[in-house]
Amino acid sequence: MHIGLIGLGRMGFNMRKRLRDGGIDVTGFDRNPDVSDVETLDQLVAALTVPRTVWVMVPAGEVTASVIADLADKLAAGDLVIDGGNSKYTEDQKHYELLAAHGIDFIDVGVSGGIWGLANGYGLMAGGSPERVAASMPLFDALRPEGPREESFVHVGEVGAGHYAKMVHNGVEYGLMQAYAEGYELLETKDIVKDVHGTFRAWQKGTVVRSWLLDLMVKALDEDPGLAQTAGYVEDSGEGRWTVAEALDNAVPAPAITAAVFARFASRQEDAPAMKMVAALRNQFGGHAVRKPGQGRETNQK
């Protein structure tokens, strides 16, 4: 199987390698010539065997919309576009309709795994027609971890369902990180606990709160004890806000996720220990940039 992959950043670069290791022929395109296999999008399309499959891994929003519009003009009837980025699910139907006007099919796939996906595999949530999803299973099987398929891959429904599931996944992630981070701050604040780092390390085996996020928390403290090199400024990439908006629209109480989103806003006002831990965790699992103490703080107090 031969596919095109557009976007070779933190996720796309590793996905290309994992696909190739899984026996998939991949031609990648990126604006950075140092990582791109071809110089132009036209060359990418020309390199693929008909019917073509192109996987898009670029930032959500205008960038994704622009790439899909370009593909609508360059691909042909019978081809397939897969959006594996973090697009808002409401945009998927627009992309599907644009491509369908040219006879091109569309699948949206929520992808989780961050910078560790190359070694560990990715969790995948697909939305689209059963026929197209089934035909794309060699790609999904190459990307997901070894083991039972149902533990790392799900066909959640029609177009838009994959990104909706990923949106809620990321909302849950917000709440989990916030809970760990608040526990960290409480342990740091009360001087009765003399080994905060060791406390979290001891939670890694046997406890009901053990998880991969906890493992990453311990790793963050190994690399930056006391988080002295980490500012408590935490970005949000959209999915948490979208989850809260969906909860409001559907009258579903989501106090933990909502509080976690607002805590990120609060992090931009003061350097709280809990938010330093959330920033460190985002860096651990996703490679998201971490600000140094004092870096850019003055621009966020206006």
UniProtKB/TrEMBL annotation:
Keyword Cell wall biogenesis/degradation among UniProt keywords: no
The keyword DNA-binding appears for this protein: no
Domain 6-phosphogluconate dehydrogenase C-terminal: 162-299
Pfam families per UniProt: 6PGD, NAD_binding_2
Superkingdom in the source lineage: Bacteria
SUPFAM superfamilies in the record: 6-phosphogluconate dehydrogenase C-terminal domain-like, NAD(P)-binding Rossmann-fold domains
InterPro entries: 6-PGluconate_DH-like_C_sf, 6DGDH_YqeC, 6PGD_dom2, 6PGDH_C, 6PGDH_NADP-bd, NAD(P)-bd_dom_sf, Pgluconate_DH
Keyword annotations: Gluconate utilization, Oxidoreductase
Membership in a protein family: Belongs to the 6-phosphogluconate dehydrogenase family.
The protein, known as: 6-phosphogluconate dehydrogenase
Gene this protein is translated from: gnd_1
